[in-house]
Specification:
Layout: H1 7-14, E1 18-23, E2 27-36, E3 42-53, E4 56-62, E5 65-67, E6 72-77, H2 82-85
Antiparallel strand pairs: 1-2, 1-6, 2-3, 3-4, 3-5
């Protein structure tokens, strides 16, 4: 029988690990998850922000960041960001 895990339980297991957070806007963040609340507002450190622009992917390095849980679309535990996820030609 398959085990189940609740979303907040998964987030709790990710504290101290890198996460890739994809927002509703054209922004994505990769950083170490320090904490979160019941609304999935998150605090990340050692953050890299990626913004998709017409000129390409813009990369900005940040210290600590607070993300609003209402704007989060997806979270990838252990994710390294959009640069590592792009499909490479063989």
């Amino acid at each position: 029988m398959a085990s189940s895990i609740l979303p907040l339980e998964l987030l709790d297991k990710c504290i101290g690990s890198n996460v890739w957070v994809i927002m509703k806007t054209e922004r994505e963040f990769v950083g170490k998850l320090l904490g979160f609340d019941d609304y999935v507002n998150m605090v990340l450190e050692n953050v890299t922000e990626y913004e998709r622009t017409p000129q390409g992917l813009k990369k900005t390095v940040l210290g600590q960041t607070l993300l609003n849980g209402n704007n989060i679309t997806m979270l990838v535990p252990g994710g390294e960001g959009p640069e590592s996820a792009e499909i490479k030609d063989a």
